[in-house]
Amino acid sequence: MLSLPSIRGTHPVGVTSFATALPRRPIGALKIRDPRTGKVDPALWLEDVAFTAYYPADSSSNDSKDCKRALWFPRPLHEALQGLATYLGLSKYLLWPLVYLFGAFIRVSSSLQEIISLDNVKIPAHLNAPLLNPLKGVDEPACPWPLVIFSHGLGGSSTAYSQFCSQLAASGKVVLAIEHRDGSGMYCKLRSSPESRNQVTRSLHYLRDSDIAWDDSGMQQDHKPLPLRAEQIIFRHHEVYLIYAAFSRFLRKESLVGLTRSDGSPVDRSWLDVMNTGESIVRFQSNVTFAGHSFGGCTILSMLLTKPMDDYVPIPIDHVVLLDPWLEPFSYPRPAPLTTNPQTTSNVESLAESLEGGDSGNTMNTETSTPKLLSSMPMLVLNSETFTVWKDHFERLENIVHLWGPSGGKILTLVGSEHISFSDFSVLPLFSKAGSRMLMDTICSLTLSFLDNNLENALEGCESHMKKMEIQIVGTKKDGKPKQKLLGNKGDVIVH
Fold it and tell me: What is the pTM of this model?
């Protein structure tokens, strides 16, 4: 059976992909040259936004009886293969046998039920299943499902973290995993606005620095540490705010929203159910959680350090979960959380200047005095061993988290973990390493304890697996620097 591990939790999990088309407009100054025609056009176009929702599913509904599993690998296969090959820097012909095997047969698991044949056994409460009403089948007072917004890393997608997102959903949360359309994922299909005269779809593969026409972009490559990533962060800000706004309007039953399922079929009406008080069964107006991995963690951090862009409505963030956040796109050494200073500006230009290392400091707060923090919400950082022994990077991370205050940020490192340990790639059948499932379970368990405001008790409960940080030199890298590892057993937790 080629399947990702089944999900453990209170509720069965549903998976539905959503999209909404937008009037097409370029974002940023980057340009890209068509290798066939030589024509130079904007590299990043905002023309639609998309996300995959993971949520508690109503397994008793007739609509869920014949639900299939969602495909894990993007379709069509040859397009996704091209994007993956570009990301890895390999020929797509070398990857074809592997990608065909997994792309054709692996499905996202969201049921405790074991399966024999993925092609003909139907799993209840899975693809496009109705959203469970929290009032159903409970005698005690129920609350709306909390909302989590998740941002993927480089080479990722809205399904590449299905294990993490599904575990949160199984515990009673609605997770919106964004499918970023900024060229940071391996592949996505874009569609133009229904109002446009020539409604078309086009493919977007992973973008590399070498794809950018720097001479024609009006930018110099040395202005930013990672200029392409800095522009992509700005693009991602737009996506997050637009998705939150579209999803909120949808739940409020406002007309002409344009939010549809990615396959074009109507959205299940269960999403519009309400509590006894008349509020939505999804809690979107308060206590929203931001989460992200790697470049997604960088995206989340940059949003916490800025005011909403343009005319976007602020998102009521309550908790923050950063999985191995990657900080290199930030050029400044020690950004601070946003202050309550009403003079702080929030336009795109000042954000770009901050990412470039400009000295205006208008958007990204770099004050050295003690500010009154808006970003005083709890923050959990789960770091891999790989990123923790990366000394310079880890010191920058500690500086940033320290500014969240004594009761704000907390950093935990999982001994024996790698950067991919937070994604589905670590638990792919036939290729997962020993202990990968245990690490994924630990990541999800710590995250859920944190979101339930019970992290300290959870850490006390696993005291036998707690370690102090001890580093051992185990060799020499190719660049001559010492190769380091953390002492301890795989899965041990280091509290910094």
Answer: 0.85
